[in-house]
Amino acid sequence: MNSAKVWLVGAGPGDPELLTLKAVRALAEAQVVLIDDLVNPAVLAHCPQARVIPVGKRGGCRSTPQAFIHRLMLRYARQGRCVARLKGGDPCIFGRGGEEAQWLEARGIEVEVVNGITAGLAGATRCGIALTHRGVARGVTLVTAHTQDDSELHWQALAQSGTTLVVYMGVARLQQIRSGLLAGGLAPDTPVAMIENASLPQQREVRSTLVRMHEDALASSLKSPAVLVIGEVAALSDATGASLATRAAS
Ligand code: SAH
């Protein structure tokens, strides 16, 4: 059977200029493009030749089952078509890229993953936050607040890691995140930046503290998609970041 390749392509956080050159090449080669909800449709300018299939599945909204997406990719690849699966940010950062690659490879399909800029990195940068600012943070930890089995994160380990925490899928769980980190020993006045629609023209930034973040998010009607940056670096900003900021009243 003539089988072509599947590219798992990171489309970045939203700003189409954050696409990699490799992503642009994959899009140009693709005959079929499967596109997730969080991908900015502007990137489709790079694949006018392709058939585009939306397969978004955001929590609580209309949903395309993962098994269906798997089968769709397999079917087109087995027809010998070049498939690009476009995912927001980086395909392998909370993007199921790993499991899709394994599933396809187990069926003999060649897969190539193309990195994208993950939302946490882009959001921090666009707010003037250096996630590992020298002398302030020794590292950065990317975590999701949403687990498949609803198990709890190891809050104490996170609170005491000395790293900047970047939390994905956290908007609906701000209270749990706060209580977990406070119980784990993180100071109540630890700075927090909540960044909605990172890198897009409608990006919004809410600066707060661990103890106030839930109330400040409510007061500013913070919505998904948003990332949280928790740690001393979240007090940093540059002139551009500060002027764009929606600062919560303190
Ligand atoms: N693979 C993606 C993450 C997918 S999980 C990446 O690497 O960025 C979906 C979560 O990512 C959202 O709930 C939100 O926390 C975050 N996210 C994705 N796009 C975002 C954006 N433009 N701004 C802020 N957060 C975003």
TrEMBL record:
Main EC class the enzyme belongs to: transferase
Q: Which GO terms describe its biological process?
A: cobalamin biosynthetic process; methylation; siroheme biosynthetic process
Part of which pathway? Cofactor biosynthesis; adenosylcobalamin biosynthesis; precorrin-2 from uroporphyrinogen III: step 1/1; Porphyrin-containing compound metabolism; siroheme biosynthesis; precorrin-2 from uroporphyrinogen III: step 1/1
> What sequence ranges are listed for the domain Tetrapyrrole methylase?
5-210
A Gene Ontology molecular function term for this protein is: lyase activity
Q: Spell out the InterPro entries in the cross-references.
A: 4pyrrol_Mease, 4pyrrol_Methylase_sf, 4pyrrole_Mease_sub1, 4pyrrole_Mease_sub2, CobA/CysG_C, Siro_Cobalamin_biosynth, Uropor_MeTrfase_CS
* Xref: PROSITE patterns: SUMT_1, SUMT_2
Membrane-spanning residues:
none
Q: Pfam families given for it?
A: TP_methylase
The UniProt entry's sequence similarity note says: Belongs to the precorrin methyltransferase family.
Q: What NCBIfam families is this protein classified in?
A: cobA_cysG_Cterm, PRK06136.1
Question: Which protein, by its recorded name, is this?
Answer: uroporphyrinogen-III C-methyltransferase
Organism from which the protein derives: Stutzerimonas balearica DSM 6083
